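Write out the 3D structure for:
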Amino acid sequence: MAATVSEPAWWIEALGWLELRKKQIGYAAVAVLVVALGISYALYARSQREVAAARALSEAVAPMLLGETQSLASGPLLEVAQRYAGTRAGGHALLLAATALSTEGDLVRAQARFEEFLREYRQSPLLNQAVFGLASCLHAQGRTNEAMDRYQSLAERRLETDPVVFLARLRLGQLCEQRGEWERARRYYEEVARALPMAGLGGEARLYLQALLEAHPELVPSQPGGESSTNGLTPPTQP
């Protein structure tokens, strides 16, 4: 009696399915390959564009870095920002262009470029610098309330490693002092002085605080026993 060999039904069905659909499977494989190649090319092209943008940015800032000029020129930077919009170097160029326009005294155009950066590069690590630049432009135009709102948005960010946050608090202290908000100014000065005791910005804050307390001694907090204290904010003594 001859032996019979049986195969699982699913295996037979699978072979039949492959035989009937081998053309479709081939087309699908080709389609997947085309998509993969397209993605690879897009990533390559993007990386090449990033490289080109970085090179163009380097060329735009080279005159100042080489000492040929004393400041950045906004024109070449704006060209890089427009040509390579969406790249990291293009964003940096836009921010530098806004700063250059501010230095050149073109505050309205500088403000527009800072605002453009904040719209188009919301995920940039330079976002705080752009907010500060915009606040500075508004401040220079005499739009104090708007400037204070921008500085305040930075001051409220508890990013203790970002010097821009502390610079915003220092500016707020100055503006509060100009408006006669002595107590609020004192708080901002103290925050900066405490956080950066050995840094230049902290030293500047201590000087402003000292001048404020001399002009308004009623702001000096009192210790038990009636003695006044500046909470250890006097400059450290040298050894």
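The chain has a mean pLDDT of 80.
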